[in-house]
Each structure stands twice: as structure tokens, then as C-alpha cells.
Amino acid sequence: MFERIYIEEAKRRPGETVTIAGWVARTRDLAKIKFIVVRDKTGEIQVTVKDLGLYPGEGLGREDVIAVTGKAAQSKIANAGVEFFPDRIEVVNKSRQPLPVDIAETSQSELETRLNWRFLDFRAPQTRAIFAIQNRLLSTFRGWLTENGYTEIQPPCIISSASEGGADLFKLPYFEKDAFLAQSPQLYKQMCAISFEKVFTVTPIWRAEKFNTPTHLNEVRQMDIEQAFADDEAVMKVLEKILVHMLRDVKEHCPEELKTLKRDLVIPELPFRRVTYTEAIEMLQRAGEQIVWGDDFTKPQEKRMMELVGKEAFFLKDWPAAQKAFYSMPYSDNPEVVHAFDCIYGGIEISSGTQRIHVPELLRERISKKGLHPENFESYIEAFAYGAPPHAGWSIGLERLTMIVTGKDNIRECCMFPRDRERLTP
Amino acid sequence: MFERIYIEEAKRRPGETVTIAGWVARTRDLAKIKFIVVRDKTGEIQVTVKDLGLYPGEGLGREDVIAVTGKAAQSKIANAGVEFFPDRIEVVNKSRQPLPVDIAETSQSELETRLNWRFLDFRAPQTRAIFAIQNRLLSTFRGWLTENGYTEIQPPCIISSASEGGADLFKLPYFEKDAFLAQSPQLYKQMCAISFEKVFTVTPIWRAEKFNTPTHLNEVRQMDIEQAFADDEAVMKVLEKILVHMLRDVKEHCPEELKTLKRDLVIPELPFRRVTYTEAIEMLQRAGEQIVWGDDFTKPQEKRMMELVGKEAFFLKDWPAAQKAFYSMPYSDNPEVVHAFDCIYGGIEISSGTQRIHVPELLRERISKKGLHPENFESYIEAFAYGAPPHAGWSIGLERLTMIVTGKDNIRECCMFPRDRERLTP
Predict the structure, then answer these.
(1) Is B276 an interface residue toward A (CB < 8 Å)?
(2) What ipTM goes with this model?
(3) Minimal C-alpha gap between A194 and chain B (Å)
(4) What domains appear along chain B, each with residue ranges and CATH number?
(5) Among A386, B88, B173, B200, which is 20 to 30 Å from A69 by CA?
(6) Is B249 on the interface with A (CB under 8 A)?
(7) pTM of structure
(8) CA dihedral A281, A339, A139, B185 (to 10 degrees)
């Protein structure tokens, strides 16, 4: 294998004989001179071929892989930057022509076509920008939590029963038994938090929901924390802090990517406003909406409520018990209301969380109240019988967060290999 | 929720009135004084109760969760460290008694029992040490790769067909189609590397292997890299560097955990010795073993070969094509041998990798030669038709690496929630 350096580095070392390698972005032929723009992960450079004998006999097409040995030099044309003068051009691997998707102008290709040719689409500047930002979000998330004493956990993906008693699970034969794909790491992160105290995970989850919408996928990745000796307010504080930290990090480290995506990222102010469900209902009623306490918000009401709150990011908290999972801790003085919250950012719910019930008897009572059967949840309930501290947690969808940060309106853009009702490939 | 500080911090702030909270590790009753040893994630402290009116009326048992407000003070008994004098003791949540597993002395409980009560087992010092080390391995792995310009990728878990043409896949109904759980991110990391150039992932994979052994699980996590413009030697260099980096990091940051596990971690010297398959066969033949070129090593031969090489870590490379996957790049001057390697560390194969074939025609030829049908691999082959650079990669099993580093001989100890033929819970 030839030794090569990145284009970015070659530009910093003019006059030195080096080898660069990458893809042909475009070519231009003049009578006595040829230009090849070569691209690698660090950028592009123009290769100026004056000795036409160096030019490959078979010609060059877009996305051909080439290695060029030569020297970089400041261009004599003002503002043209650095060009590269070759001593040798080697064709490493030819690309079939024409290309099935337009890499230079993502917008020219339909999303479905781009997803069909995802490996080529990964070379498009817009797509690269999305995943560069997703990378920052992930590494900043993990980095902050690790620095702050959280233990990374590895919840199982194959489970024996529905963790939240819900439907929409993918079922599979597991040797002699039936098993399911986890729709949430809920029980597992609770089991870890009641011993490790502060835990986090980034893990795939699956929901066998039949509908196909621009904001849903059947396989997504969740970024979760769970924390002992914490109530809902304690983990809301962690959420707002880490969210702003991630957004600031993207703004600082991905200015080029945000520019490519024409995205002006607004960093919300700390602390986020806390709006109770009851306040939200009253706000809507005053604005003339037909809604009463206990109702869920319709989509237009949700939108209206966000306008009324008027903040880039806020918490909607203290929900009616009926609208949240059975394991949500009820207020001791008003068991119809639970310690549960949603975090709304950029007009979308990006996270929800609760303080969990850590007392077995109360858990049994609340399961029954939901019309479910405690005997179906015995192993879940038993986990809290041996010294479970109070605990709380939340979950952010990685792809959904990426959508909002990058300003995309189809979640498929923000998942490398999306899985929906129709799509199982590539 | 009460505000509490960690025990470690309370010890550093003697004389201040603070609240600590955690689990009752053990208690001791003398006539006029009671001792409670409280444990949290940062350590233990002895609470000395002189005013017996403070002691909870119902008594205290192991793993009861309590919060104690009071002051830390240097003990008057030499070498006894810091003790805690309470003003108030609150019982937060009682534990059922007796405990189903022994937390203080892991060895007293059978592994199966410990796994059945995994959330309690997470409180045992040995188990905590294993996962503290696994955490370091993971964060150091990701950190090093991120710093060195690798992009984290998210390969899909549900796939439409067998990526390596192998058997032992878990099959599941996916709406109107059949799908499989990925047994490897192979194709996906290749598709990413031929565009992003340097990629990594930590991802779950599944193998529906029927046998139940101490070193196999049906769900594990793989740590993978894939790199463009790289051959096998280039990624072997990355592997030995990152492995030594991870081991040094564990040795430096987890001395207490290694002590708990009675583990003396040997850091292998760089560079690792490269032993070719042919040399290994000759070595064994000279040592009197019945083996000829082309044979696979029997278990005893493998052990013998490791003794003959005599290194803590080494590469076994240049394998016969017949023993490696169809996508392994053959040597141009000897197509019976491929650019493939295993990395042996501590007597166990912890990683294997290859330079991949990036030329569609060669890929078709090699698939046929294996007795497989290229038409079943068309979408895989097509991915290399549009400008694929040469590329190579490898994979480390997270749980297997944790086993070797922690000196455990059952992989179940090194997986938070192991899945094997029999075990689907917790």
C-alpha cells in the first residue's frame, strides 16, 4: 500500500514531494492543460496537469479513486488557493459512470434514491455535515457524563417480555422460546441505577409501529441516563445542562457544517422555563382553545402552546398520571399528578423523563390502577425489593436530536441506515 | 428530595454538617453504642451511633437505604480512618431480608444465582471492578479513535440478509418481510469507510449458535474499525497501538479494581511480533506436531503454538484463503494466501481482521471460488463499483477483551445482562 498524506496536510507542506489520494470530484479540459479536483476527508485540491503524458490514458470520471504524487504550491491566480503539480498519477479504482446520485448537489437527488445509494450519499457535503454533527453530539454526550461520574451500561437488546407493557414489539424465535427486541432500556437502566447510582447508555431500540411518517423510524438509538437519589427536578437539571453543553459544542466545533446546512443554531438560555401541564392548559384556555384538564394536546394545540410559551426550549412537567407510564412517581399530596416531564426544543419533544416508583407496594398499586396486572410485572417489581433508592431518568432520541440540530424535517436524513416499514436495505 | 453528598466528599469535609446516603453494608451492636457501615458509589464510612434514640426503631438490615445527616470526624482509634457522627438517620427504603446473594463475598454465591439477581450483584466489589474496567476500555477506545479522526458510525441491527453468507442468524418477521439480526456490521462499516475513510463503531451483534460454552454468548458487543487507503499491516499497527493504549489506561486508572480482582496486568511490548501462518505451521512441525499447511490448528496445537511464540500478544497473519472469509484480499503473487490476521493476547484470539477486496470483479471471482453464488451478494459487490479505495479493518469483542483484562474465565461475568441459549432474563 502506498503511503499518503491528507490533502489538508499537503496544502500545509508546499514544495515537498508527497502523495495524496482520494476521489475525482470533477475535471476540466483545456487545450494544453487539464485540471483534476481531488477530494479526501479533509477537503479538495486542484491538480494541475501540464504534462499531458501524466494524464491517465483511459481518462478520468467522477469518483474514480486516484493517488497523485507531486508538490503543492500557492496558485499564481489570486484567491485560487493552493494547487498541486503532479509527477505521477495512479488510477487506484475506477468508478462506474454515470453516478446514480448527484454528490455535489444533494438537492438534485430524491431522498429515496440517496438512501438507496447511501454509501455514495455519504460523500455529499450536506450528508457529511449531518453526521459530523451527530458525531459531536454523541462524543460530547458520553464525554460529559463520563467526566461527571456516570457509568456506561450495556442493556440487552433481546428481552423476554415487554418492558413497559406496551404493544408494537418485534417478536422473534429464540431457540425454544419467544423473545422480543427491546423497545426501551427502561428496566435495565433502573436495575443499574439502583446499584451504580449514575448510569448512561446509547443503545438501539425498536418499535414495530406500522405507520410510516417523516419523523418515525422502527430502529433508533436512545441516549439515556438514570440516576439514584434523584427526583424529576434533579434529572431535568442534568438534561438542560448537557443539552446546552452539546449545542454549544456543535456551534463551536462545527461552524462549517452548520454553514453547509444553512443552519443558525440558537442556544437556549439556562435554566429552561418549567411550565406545568396545568399552566399549559390554562394558557390554552385563555387563548380560546377548547381543552380541559386531563386532555392530551392535539397537534395544533401543541403548536399553539409552544408559541404561547415562546421559548426555544422548555420543560412541560407534572402531567396527569393517566398520560404517563405506570412507573411514574405520583405526587404524595395529589396522586393524579406524576413527577414526569417532557423537554421541548425547537418545537419538538426531544426528551421525556420521570421520577420512577422505587417502592414495590406503590408500584403494584399503580399498575393495578392502570388496569394492568401486577403479576405480569413481578420480576420488574422484585428489583426494587432489596434496597432501591429513589431514582429518576430521561431519554433523548439520537436521530431526533440530530434532526433538530441540523434543521432537517425527515428523520431518515439523520440516520445512516434508516429502517422503516418499507426500508430494510441497504 | 434531600440533598446529599458522596461519602468520599464527606470524608474530605470533617466538622461540616452534611447528609450522606447509601446502603447499609453491615451493622454492629455493642451495649451502649451501635455502628452502621454505609456504602455509596464512592466508598464506605462507619456511622457511630452513641445516642441510641437516633437508631431506627425497626432496626436496620443489609442493603437498607438510609440517609444520615451529621458530621465526619477523624477516628480517635489509630488507623480507623474517618467516622461519621449522626444527628439524624432516615430510613429511605427497607430491603427484604435475607438477601438472595452475598454481596460482600461474591465467591460465596454461584454465578447463576448472581446473574439471576444481577442488580444486587452489581453492588459486589468484584463485579463493580469488572465493569469499571469495561467502562475505561470503552471510553479510551472511543476517545483515541475520535481524537485520531475516525467517524463513529451507527450500523443497522436489523438487516435483510446474511452479511457474510453464514448460518446461525436470528430471523424475525419484519412487517410483510423476513429480516435478520446482524451478526456483524461488516458490509456497513465497509460502505462507510469507502466514503468517510476512517470509521469505528461499538455495536451489538447476534449469533444464533446453539452451543453453550463459558466463552460464548448469543448477544455481544463488537468494537470495530474500518479504514480506507489501508492494508492489513496499516490496521494491525492501529490495533496494537490502541490495545496497548487501553491496557496502559486501565493499569493507570483502575489500580484498586485490578487489586480487587487480584489481577496483575501485563502490558505487551510494541510492536507485536508478526508470525505468519506458514511460520506457525513450521514451528509446530519442528516441535513434533502432526500438522500440514492448510490445516486449522486444534485447540492443543493452538496452545502449543502460543507457548512456542512466547509473547503476551502477537499477530498470526497471512492465512490460507480457505480459512478466511471470501472478502479477504488475496496476495497478488499467491492467491492461496490472504491479507488476514488474528491478534492473540493472553492466550486468546481477541481480534481478527483483513484487508478487504475493493474490486467488484475480484470479489465475484473469490465468492465463486468459495462455492458461493455471486448473485446472492450483488448489493454487497455493487457497493464497490463507484470508486472504492483499498480498505481494511478489524473487530474486537468487548466482553471477550474485558474477560482477558480482568482475568475472568466465564464471559458471563463480563456482560451486564448476558444472553445465552438458556438465559433471556433479567
Answers:
(1) no
(2) 0.95
(3) 7
(4) 7-93 (2.40.50.140), 119-414 (3.30.930.10)
(5) B200
(6) no
(7) 0.96
(8) -100
